[in-house]
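Example record

One chain of 311 residues, shown exactly as stored in the release files.
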Amino acid sequence: MTSTSNPRDLRAELESLTTEAFRPELAGIDQLPTPEIARLMNTEDATVAAAVAQRLPEISAAIDAVADRMGRGGRLIYMGAGTAGRLGVLDASECPPTFNTDPSQVVGLIAGGPDALVTSIEGAEDSRELAEADLDALTLTPDDTVVGISASGRTPYAIAAVAHARKLGALTIGLSCNAHSALAAAAEHGIEVVVGPELLTGSTRLKAGTAQKLVLNMLSTITMIRLGKTYGNLMVDVRASNEKLRARSRRIVALATGADDAEIERALAATDGEVKNAILVVLAGVDGPTAARLLEESGGRLRAALTAAAD
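Predicted structure tokens for this chain:
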């Protein structure tokens, strides 16, 4: 399925998409009482997780491939237009405070640039050249991963991003919400979460957007788990940039070590507030510089550093 500039052909193409399908049984939704509309929306949303579950094998394979490349210094790059692009930017922007990643490690690009986050940039999603230029500005390497995101699976910007990245040797993932999409076909790893027609015809910010958010959560979170950014289910690489996160840092050290408040404060002071280092100080009985060295030698993996400290 490819995009076309002919309005009649484009209409026929959209009408063939599950995400654009009209549901006549909902034609009177605007006449329903608010609680009933809310119930209908909630019922629709409850189906999304099951649709994602059907794609777990493909999602898992993609995550392992991403983690392998990021472990060698590669980047995770999301690209999309409209809602899909905003979701990619959102996921990327949450990685530095959650996992203490450098902002360049997980990148979100939206068709039309930053202004498109808050307003519609007409025509940007149809530009293949824009996608290629956005990627060329990043100087891709074979260790990078480009994730094209498009509910329809036909957005030219997302397809061109994946095709260009693949030509340059990067790993490619295509995330869409229609079966047999051009986006999935263009990528090495196609993930098609078919959530069905929307409550409002063609409004893919609804179920399709929720599905994409769930999958992006998995891609980034599980990749970071594989890279040693967590200790169990604790965010030991969290960046304490405000009071709430500083309090969370102390709680994480407490949960990981069972230490009292005084010992936790000493450990954090000895490690300039680095949670992972502070846990190592408490559990291994080492000083701050030794903890930093052990973590560096262990590739930032706390369990490996603890094993090395015990040897």
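Notes: The chain has a mean pLDDT of 93.
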